[in-house]
Every structure is written in C-alpha cells, then in structure tokens.
Amino acid sequence: MRSSSTSRRAANDLARGTALGTHGRYEIVEMINRGGTAVVYRGIDREKGGGEIALKCIDVSSDARVVVPLAAVKREIKYATRLMGGNGSNAGVPGVVRLLNVVNHGEDVLVLVFELAKGVDALDYINQHGGRLDEDEARRLFAQLVEAVRAIHDLGFCHRDVKPENAIVCEDGNLRLIDFGLAKGLESAKTRAVGTPDYMSPELLDKLDRDGKVRTEKYDAAACDVWSSGVFLFIMLTGRYPFQDPNRPNNVKATLQNIVKGNVAPLRVDVSDDVRDLLRCMLTPDPRKRITLKQVAKHPWLSGSLGRRKKPSLVDRLKQSFTFRRATTSD
C-alpha cells in the first residue's frame, strides 16, 4: 500500500475550468509552467470580459511537496505590488509583468493573478533563433532588461534570480521580467546561496566566514543582479553558460568552482570588443570592483539603446482598445 504522502495530489494541481476567487471570477484554461513551489496557469477573468491572465498557484498547505515560507510569499506580493506604482498602471516599469490581484482557493492554495505576458521565455527565444542572438538583437533585449532591473533597484529591492527563464519575450518583441519569488530589500539582503547556481555571483556562494560560521552580514544585492544580468547577456550572445565546464556540463560543483575563480568561458571570435569589455566588467568576481547598472547603461556597447521598446502594431493597438472597452462595459 502506498503512503498518503506519495499518492496525495498537490493542492495546486488544478483542472481546466476550475473557478478561483470570489464568485468564481477567474477560470483556469491550461497550465503554462510548473516550478518547484508553484504552478502557473493561463486563465480568463470573467469580470473583465474574458480577458486573459496568468494564475500563479502556490500550495501553502503544511504537507506541500515543497513547503513555501509564508514570509517569502508575502515578500513576493509586497514587491510585485510596489512595482505597480500605487495606481496599478505600472507606468515607468514597462519591462515588468504586473500583479493584478491575490485570491485564495480553499485553505491550501494562494493565487497570485498577473497580467499574461504572451510570448516565450528568453531561453526558448534564443533557441528559436539558432541557439544564439546576433549582437543587435541581444543589445535590444539587454537594454530592456537593464531598464527593468534598474527600476526595481530604484524602488529599493533586488530580484536575485535574473535569468532568461524569468524573462518573457512577448509577441510584440519586447522583454518583460517575471517571478519575484526571491526578491528582497536592498538593505536587508543577508541570506546567501540564493537563486539559480549558474547565475549566482561569487559573494552569494561565500556562505561561511573564516571561523566556519554562516555569514549574516548584509551584502550588495544590486551587484548580484548585475552579475546575473551579465550571465544572461553571455548566454544570449553564445548560447552557452559562461561558467559551465564543457567536459562536465552537468557538474554543478565544477560550475560553482569556476564562478568563484572567475573562470569565464571564451567568447566567439566575432564578438565585438565593446561587448567583451562590458561582460568583463559585469562578471568581475569582486563586487566592489564590479560595474554598476548605472555604469552599464552608459557603456559604449549600449549607447543609444536604452528607452527603445518596440511599439505595438496598429492591429495590436486596435485589439488592446477593443479589449479595454469590452472590459469596462462589462463591469
């Protein structure tokens, strides 16, 4: 006989058509992604004329497969709400997906309702374009990433998990940053070994002090986002992870050793000198010597690229206008 722990269906494994929220406002259509702590579904908002949304469903039950600390969930909601700028317009943070609502489904599932960023994650986008991007396209997307991360820092917190899988290249060609599950205040970031190993900066891996005790002092979390953004750029240009040992690609220990030592994989010969210099400055092991995002924005390789987002086509603008009118008349 199997134990209940192995046969129990996760509380956030929800079927198509499941209604969520007060009066069943939201309806699940299909699963988009499954992570360690949450399942994300595409859904519709019945109160807004059937407009599409993303439903991040977190199993908060005591016997969840991965127990999520309530404090972590509260942090994600706190920082995602802060990005809305108080009026829900998300003006000034065009590269970030908005949080629209928070509801519960019974006692075991907390649902974060986000606007739906239609597109593919940046890693899939890279693979769809032959495994790497040319410099012009990488520059365009990277400029948008830098703007989004800078906006987050300007609001007093860091992302701590910047990577292609947490960025959507939308149907309009623009990049949107998602997933604030590891976000933390810039002045309160103390926990190390946070994030995804391939993107962690050396200081995040330095968990113990000289006496073998766990470090508890604050670190420069903004510098950690600079590092992971540099890894993001390296992957766009090469299709490879900068610190992965080619002879041991699945060996996490080898990857982490290369990160600590600053052993960056060689770039292709056709990569420009300007972007080589930018990557060198971003992937500097010592955070005190690492370039800042403000300096990144002024780097010659990015000169003139910031603030340029693709404008939606006439058809897309008409669709958005129609959706808005339909939503407002149905309230």
From TrEMBL:
GO cellular component: cytoplasm
GO molecular function, one term: ATP binding
Record keywords: ATP-binding, Kinase, Nucleotide-binding, Serine/threonine-protein kinase, Transferase
Signal sequence, start to end: none
GO BP annotation list: intracellular signal transduction
Domain Protein kinase: start-end pairs: 26-302
PANTHER family recorded: KP78A-RELATED, MAP/MICROTUBULE AFFINITY-REGULATING KINASE
Record protein name field: Kinase-like domain-containing protein
Organism: Ostreococcus tauri (Marine green alga)
Cross-referenced SMART domains: S_TKc (SM00220)
